[in-house]
Amino acid sequence: RAKEAGRDGYRFFTAGMNVQVLARLDLELALRHALEHGEFLLYFQPKVNLRTGRISGAEALLRWNRPGYGLVFPVEFVPVMEETGLIVRVGAWVIDEACRQIAQWSASDVGDVRVAVNVSSRQFVEGDLEGEIRAAVSRHGIDPTLLELELTESALMSNAEHTIAVLGNLKQLGITIAIDDFGTGYSSLAYLKRFPIDKLKIDIAFVRDVTVNPDDAAIALAIIGMAHSLHMQVIAEGVETPAQLAYLRRHRCDEVQGFHFSRPLPAAEFGEMVMANVAQPSEPEAPDSHRQ
Ligand code: C2E
Ligand code: MG
Ligand code: MG
Ligand code: MG
């Protein structure tokens, strides 16, 4: 594996190296090229607040417009970037680009949009995440409360002390901290308690069959209950059906995100969706209604 190649960039080719290895090296080179040539872009998937039925923000999701290939999804290249460490530089680009987009929307009719970015553990350990975020926020002049970070449990598990300190500083700045894919990692609750977490994101694995599998439902309800008891917000990812939506709303999940509302969209389309305020499938429970 390329990870075992020299850190200084030297690689040794042997007759034993197979097609897969060469393809992998090709991909690495193409990814470095992509960063330098502006081939990455962000798509935005709406998050919907279940109390208001309105779009409450977006998750920024990385896409690669690879010449000759079309739009490439993270599953094809994020793991390679994680292994090679390229995710540190691309992750910094993601943060800057998200802040640029927030500023552009804020200055337009779209208005303030809270954008969540996915952050890799390597950005904490190897990069200067706090410095990069502060720089991006001030470079684009955005309100830092419009920025949210999504970290997985495993991201929190490497270098805990340092990560706790960085997250504490970012939270003081007004940034929201969310745990992504919650429930699939190996962290204990005692461990998580030490982090300044604002929001838990229920993994799609528990959402998929939440209305038909009692175990998944129990886990989803436990996460919602725990989040609220600890004064955290809770969001469900991967909501695809009206039944899942109804279940989550009934059990007081705060936000949802998924294909039921929208797939991830190019920035311009997301902006149009916000302006049209088509956060539709909400029940008639707007706070200004005269029921109760
Ligand atoms: P994630 O952060 O858990 O993002 C959610 C993924 O689920 C996205 O896939 C999204 O398109 C997909 N999704 C959304 N709604 C639904 C739904 O209703 N059903 C199903 N089946 N899927 C849904 P995507 O964009 O392919 O991203 C995959 C993963 O790649 C992300 O998972 C995240 O771990 C990683 N990723 C994406 N962008 C970045 C980035 O900028 N930095 C880092 N470090 N990782 C990223
Ligand atoms: Mg995420
Ligand atoms: Mg997720
Ligand atoms: Mg996920």
TrEMBL record:
<feature type="domain" description="EAL">
    <location>
        <begin position="24"/>
        <end position="278"/>
    </location>
</feature>
<protein>
    <submittedName>
        <fullName>Diguanylate cyclase</fullName>
    </submittedName>
</protein>
